[in-house]
Amino acid sequence: MKPYLNRFSVDGYYVPLVKELSELAKSRKCSYGVRIVFRNGRIYLHLSVTVELYLKCFRKGEAKGDLIAGFDLNSDRINMVIVDKYGRIVDM
């Protein structure tokens, strides 16, 4: 075993996601972004994955509503719109 492999850990909560991402990346079916952060003497690895992969690993139940909310966050305001399953605006 290589010595540097003993120096990091993955929270058990994320192991299924990391394994799935690794397999998809090896087969060139998925790409992802990586950022290494050095903070307070520790090293953190941030992975950016598709929302589909994240939901596959962490979804709890199914959505039961017919409405979807979208948000636009700006420095001076937050805009929200609610649409139904046909894309019609219900509220703004």
Shape: extended
Order of helices and strands: HEEHEEE
Q: How many helix segments?
A: 2
Helix content: 10-25%
* Major sheet strand order: 3-4-5
Structural class: alpha+beta
Strand segment count: 5
Largest sheet: 3 strands, antiparallel
Which stretches of 5+ consecutive residues score pLDDT under 50? none
Q: In a nutshell, what does this entry contain?
A:
With 92 residues, the chain is an alpha+beta fold. It has two helices and five strands; from the N terminus they run H-E-E-H-E-E-E.
Fill in the keyword field for this structure:
92 residues, alpha+beta, 2 domains
Outline the fold blueprint.
Blueprint: H1 15-26, E1 33-39, E2 42-48, H2 51-58, E3 68-73, E4 78-83, E5 89-91
Antiparallel strand pairs: 1-2, 3-4, 4-5
What does the model show?
The chain has two helices and five strands. The protein folds into two domains: about 1-60, no CATH class; about 60-90, no CATH class. The strands form two sheets. It has a three-stranded antiparallel beta sheet with strand order 3-4-5, with no helix packed on it. A two-stranded antiparallel sheet has the order 1-2. β3 (about 70-75) and β4 (about 80-85) form a beta hairpin. With about 90 residues, it is α+β, with helices and mostly antiparallel strands. About 0% of the residues are buried. The model has no long low-confidence stretch (mean pLDDT about 85). It is extended and about 45 Å long.
